[in-house]
Amino acid sequence: MIIIGFDPGTRVCGYGIIQSEKQRILAAGCDIIKLNPKLKLSGKLAELSKALSAVLDDYKPDIAVVETIFYGKNIQSSITLAHARGVILQACALSNIRVFEYSPREVKKAVTGNGNGSKSQVRAMIQKIIGLTAPIESEDASDALSVAYTHFNKMKFGKFNLVEEGYAKET
User: Fold this and answer.
1) Is 140 a catalytic residue?
2) What is the pLDDT of residues 6-18, one digit of tens each?
3) Higher model confidence: residue 133 or residue 61?
4) CA distances from 28 to 15, 79, 116 (A)
5) Which of 31, 106, 140, 143 is catalytic?
């Protein structure tokens, strides 16, 4: 099974991939899609859509997992982020990939044991858990890999009907 996780963004969109078999991780990696900062939002979303289609075609994931939006003080940032998230959901839907979502707090808790863990703690822990030898350069990439790992971990521990049991939301 191949699980792809996404950390949405309109400057940088992270993605992380876990390939597993019989509840064991066989391979994992992560990267980013860096968007042209000179483009307007609509141009960035079009660029993101094309890049996502290529990533999904290359890896052919069985499941996609997306981080939900963090509602902070800046509502404009949340709305912009929602646009990127919508492009991710559309790309997955067009590729017939089931999509699940987890909040940033759920992801941090799954990886660090603490729902308030910092981005640097998440990056260090996911690298250790997965056993990656090369350091993860981008927080966006490590966040995306952490999102994928959260879903893998829930599946591994017998939460196979995640939606009906309330452990995940299928989007």
Assistant:
1) yes
2) 999 999 999 999 9
3) 61
4) 11, 31, 25
5) 140
Q: What is the pLDDT of residue 73?
A: 66
Quick one: tokens of 50? 């094309």
Which pTM was predicted?
0.89
Structural domain tally of the chain?
Answer: 1
Tens-digit pLDDT profile for residues 74-86: 788 889 999 999 9
CATH number for the domain harbouring residue 41: 3.30.420.10
With 0-12 / 13-18 / 19 or more C-beta atoms within 10 angstroms meaning exposed / middle / buried, residue 44 is: buried
Marked catalytic residue, from 31, 67, 106, 143: 67
Q: Is 143 a catalytic residue?
A: no
Domain span holding position 89:
2-170
